[in-house]
Every structure is written in structure tokens, then in C-alpha cells.
Amino acid sequence: MTTLATLRALHATIGSSLDDIEKAYKAQGLDFPSPDVPLYRNDNLAAGFTADDPAEKLMADPVVARPASYAVAAASQLVNALQHPFFNLLEGATAYQVSAAIQFLEESHTPEIMRAAGPDGIAVDELACKIDELRAVRGPVPKPFDPSPLSHILRLLATHQIVREVRPDVFANGRLSALLDSGKTPEQIRNAPEKKYDDTNGVPAIVPTTINEGFRSISYLSEWLLHPREGSNSSSAFKYAYNTDEDMYTWLERPENSFRLLQVGRGMAAGSLVDGSTSVADNSAFPWDSLPKDALVVDVGGGVGSVTFRIAAAHPHLRYIVQDRAQTVAIAPKAWDEQQKAVFGAGRIAFQAQDFFAPQPAVYQVPRAGGVGEVRHPAVFVVTRVMHNWGDEECKRLLGHLRAAAGPDTKLLIVDQVLPLACAEEGSLAPEGSPLLPNLGKAYVVGYHMDILMYAIFAGKERTLREMSAVTAAAGWKIASLKRAVGGVWAYITLVPS
Questions:
Q1: Residues 413/493, Cβ–Cβ less than 8 Å
Q2: Beta carbons of 299 and 315 less than 8 angstroms apart
Q3: According to a count of CB atoms within 10 Å of the terminal CB, is the N or C end of the chain lower?
């Protein structure tokens, strides 16, 4: 096929995909969400804003999510083919500027200030003064914030349709910047900045979670790999950048990093927003309803319990143990909102300090009415977004301890990304005969970004199917089924003892 024929085929893919999307929206009398209209998702927001938007919900339905992924992949390939190669390359080489601008947006509390200002926006001079008011919480401001670079930072973000420039040097939230809104008023942030991320869906915390240490680590990636300083034997770019022997989670447990540890715990809850068509609590991800009453589910490396909360809320007939490091278990109650407190306080869930690189308990103390019961073999081990933090040898050790604690009927549910190859050797996500990349390129590129981030911070990785099969088989587990979410990044992998 000639290049022009390929471009025409990509154009046709976009058109047919939009036809399918339009049909789905018109059938429900809806319009597709606009990038210019902010949707505030957190619960404690001003009256008039709601996250219960049917047009947004329809985006996660496979009838829309699948053609949308084809259109995104095709549009991206068209851009890459049609844009001047030098501009294309330079955009990639300078993408760190967008990361820095997003980091500034969140850290300056600009989304909350813009929401308070309303849809007509706020001028950069006034915005700078509002930012200074919040900066003063941490102590005297050395000098007033200069508004002149502010318009340039926000204009870069407006060019990426993250915020809106409504008039010259006047900016307002867009659909993307509204995702970073914590739901707090500027006054609430000024009075209690440490509570900014309380009662949120985790998205406001995901930016500092992925950028703060990740940005610095990534900036040292080439030096760490190609030109390490004399005497350095750092096992990750994070350790190299911070000149430490501690992994990131141990480093976060330092007393001076206590707020960052809580922030990271909050940010992990944001993973649910990229579930797409399938949630971890869905029976299509795992047959939870087939488990007998009071069967034990052990959430390994479960953090503050965000995944267990979702499963337990949907499947109250089961019992749960959330395992994580002692420091994380200790701060878990501080990270719960009122709904989570109700579920965790119902007596069906216990927290347990447990290093997943150590052998599992011989007997599990399971919460039951009037006390606790003892279980030798859990029905299910759940390992959610853990394996990508670790290299193969560490994962084999972790999974090996679970295998040793498993009974003959114990299942293992791994929720992680399984990266498709960029060639069709392991099958293709694209329709047969399509000009699209087999992995749908831009549609799921965030997974490949996370892959390199995990490598830089932890020397971990997002695995391909062949890599996941190899590491689990080496630990005594066999893949029984794999479910990919449509429109999301997660794969739900059910394994049985081999």
C-alpha cells in the first residue's frame, strides 16, 4: 500500500469510528463531552457541578470506547505522518515542559482557584495574587509571584487543551484541568493544606505521585544507563538521582516524607479512573459471586485498601485482609473517606502488616462476627498494580511465597498492564486489515510511558504477555484467563497453581 493510500485508510478509520460514536450518543439523546467544559468529579464540590454525567459514563461503554480507541490511534498516526519530521521529533524531545507545566498547575492550586473564579476565567494578575495567598501558608513569601511567566505556562497548557484561554491573559478550567481539582475551596486549602487530597478520587494526588520523584528519576535515565558516575552501583535511576540505597517506598517512609507517603497512597486510588469497561470488582474481571460465603480474599500490597474497598462494597459476602508495610497500614485510616470508613468498619476487613517478600502467615486471622476465625488457605490472592514496581526476580519471590501459601483451589488475580507488542506477533488489538499499529499506538501509549517510569524509579516494568507468562510460571502459577478492559489500561489475569 502506498503512503497516500495508507493516509486515506487512516482517514476512513477516523470517519467510520466517529459514525459509530455518533450513533451511540444520538441513541441516548446525548452529545459527546467537550474538552472546553470542566467536569468536577469529586464529591464535596460547589452546587451545580456533578460527576454523574451520562455522556461521560457512555465513554467507558465498549460501544464507544472501542471505536474511540481506533480513532485516536488513526488520528495519531496521521499526525505523525503529516507533521514535519523535525517538529514531530522536537515535540517529543521537549515534552518535559508539559510535565513541568502540569506539575505547576497542581502544586499552585490553580484548578481550585479557577473553579472559584467561575467559567469566565481569571486574569493572570489576579491568579498570581491568589497563588501567593496560598503560598503564604508555608511561611512568608520572599517576593510576590511574577504573573508574566504565568500566562506563558498556562498558554502552553491551553495549546494542549488542558486549560482554556478565554480572553487575552485570562484563563479558565477545561475538562482536563478540572480532573486535578480536589474539590476544596481556596480557603479550605489555605486553612488545612495537609487535607487537600482528603475525600478525593485520587486524581489530584496522581500528578505529584507520578511527577515529583518520577521527573527527577527520568532526567537521570541516560546518565544512569550510559555514563554512571564512578563508584555508583545504583540499581535504579531513582537511587542514582537521589544518591540513596533505599527504594522509593522506603525513602518515602522517612519522617520528613510523611506527607508524600500519604499523597502517594491517595494517588493510587486514581487507577480506577482508567478501568475502562471493566472494574476489578466486576464478575467479568473475576467470578467473585462464585466464591462461597465468608471466603477469604487477601489483597497483597493493598496500600490503604482502595482496591479492597471496591471489591468489598460490591461483594459483602466475602471476608478480606489487606496486607502492606507497617507504615502504610498505620496511615490507612487517615486516607479513607466517609463511605470507605463505613465499609472498613463493618467488621469484614482486617489490615495486616506484611512484607510480601517474606513468607505468608501459616494461618490467617480472619474477621468474623463476634471475633476472628482461622483460615489456612485463602480463596483468592489479589495483586493489583504491584508487579510493575519490581524486576523479575523480585516478582518470582513474591509470587513464590503466595504459591507456598496457596491451597489446591486458591486463585491468584493479578491486575496490571500487559503491554501488546508494536508488531503483530502476539496478535493485534487493531481490526483485521486495518492500517493501525497492532497495539493501537496513541490510544494506549500511557502504558508505555508508565513502563519506562517504572523502570526508572523501581527497575520494574510493565510486562508483555510473554514476560508475564514467564515470570508467573517460574513461581508455580499458570495463567487460566486474561481479560483486557476496553478503553482502559488494565488486564485482569486469573492464575491457578501449576
A1: yes
A2: no
A3: N
Note the pLDDT of residue 45.
41
pLDDT exceeds 80 at position 270 = no
Q: What is the 8-class DSSP label of residue 488?
A: S
Q: What is the mean pLDDT of residues 186-203?
A: 88
Task: List, for residues 360-418, the tens digit of each pLDDT value.
Answer: 999 999 887 666 789 999 999 999 999 999 999 999 999 999 999 999 999 999 999 99
Using pLDDT thresholds of 50, 70 and 90, give the confidence band for residue 273. Answer: low
Is residue 181 within 8 A of residue 51, CB to CB? The reply is no
Spans of all domains in the chain: 3-82, 86-195, 203-270, 288-497
3-state secondary structure of 181: coil
317-329 pLDDT per residue, tens? 999 999 999 988 9
CB 187 within 8 A of CB 256: no
Q: How far apart, in whole angstroms, are the C-alpha atoms of residue 196 and residue 112? A: 10
CB atoms closer than 10 angstroms to residue 258: 14
Looking at residue 257, the DSSP 8-state letter turns out to be G
Q: Round to the nearest angstrom and report the end-to-end CA distance of the chain.
A: 46
- Matching residue, cell 505556562: 153
Distance set, CA 440 to CA 19, 24, 76, 307 (Å): 19, 22, 10, 28
Quote the cell numbers at residue 269. Answer: 486510588
Instruction: List the beta bridge partners of residue 383.
Output: 300, 414
Lookup: cell for 179: 480532573
Q: At what angle do helices 203-219 and 96-107 cross, to 10 degrees?
A: 140
pLDDT reading at 289 higher than 90: yes
Rounded CA separation 214/453 (Å)? 6
- Measure the CA–CA gap between 202 and 179, rounded to whole angstroms: 10
Show the CA angle centred on residue 481, arms to residues 483 and 457, nearest 5°: 65
Residues linked to residue 165 through DSSP beta bridges, in sequence order: 171
Within 13 Å, how many C-alpha atoms sit on residue 49's CB side?
19
d(CA 264, CA 133): 26
% of the chain at pLDDT higher than 90 = 73
Range 288-497 has CATH code 3.40.50.150: yes
Q: Is the pLDDT of residue 48 over 70?
A: no
Domain 86-195 belongs to what architecture? Answer: Orthogonal Bundle (1.10)
The three cell numbers of residue 417 are 498492564
